[in-house]
Amino acid sequence: MILETIAEKYLWFLVAILAVNLYQRKFTPRSYKKRTATLIIASLAMVWQIFIVIILSRGWPHWFAVPALALTVAIAIPFRNRILLFRATCSRCNAKLPATAIINYDDNLCAKCWADDHPEEQVVEEIIEEEPVPLVTARSVEEIDWDSWEPTETAVLCYLFEGDKVLLIDKKSGFGKGKVSAPGGHVEDYETASEAAIREFKEETLVDIPSVEPKGILEFQFVDGLAMRGYVFFAHSYTGQPTETEEARPFWCPIAELPYDRMWADDRLWMPLALENRNFTARFIFDGDDMLSHQIIES
After folding, report:
1. What is the tens place of the pLDDT at every residue in 110-129?
2. Fold of 141-298
């Protein structure tokens, strides 16, 4: 009767082992070796189950299960180093390990020892756990104290002119995807805004511009918390051929035919000032693509 009971209950044992293996997948790549170990254990358990089924179906004496078990153990010996990975204590400081570490972590390290070995992972976790940027309740520029307002990002825009035409781009990726704009992007910590304008122009159009001329400052507050300061530049000389890149599709456009309907809503408010060489600071509140409020101050 013992073998019959084992044969009946064995399936649940195999299911339990495979369930542990599926659970281990959540901890990839730290559980690769132990996932392999559970699969080997499941395979060996199935081998002994096959022996038991054969013994029962042939009517052999039940004590045949003992040598069958010994044969299964003999088959497992070459795999012993790949099976005997599970420890109840930390392999370094001997601290007691939680069940999660015993079952999943190949290195058998406690949280403290693992953190000592992987300080960079701790930095990532700290960044992930940072509080989200709070939403902004202001719906009018007058509700914001712009003197103390600080941007979370700094960006540039650069318009290249040739005669009565200006070089624009169809933005293919990133912020403003799908809109018509000027080449531009974020200012890196190591560069000035004018250096960023020259670099971004080259990256998006493959065109070199030797110098740029500042025209105005744009300050955007988005209701989702994004606060961006942008610097507008003009350029009038270049070398190279405007070429499509992964980020942008450049095209020449008559200045008198700027496609404001395909551009950000604020462009039509400050672009005429820039074209008239009137310096300005423009402030806006946006909810997604929708402009809620604006203020333009000429200087």
Report:
1. 777 777 765 545 444 444 45
2. Nucleoside Triphosphate Pyrophosphohydrolase (3.90.79)
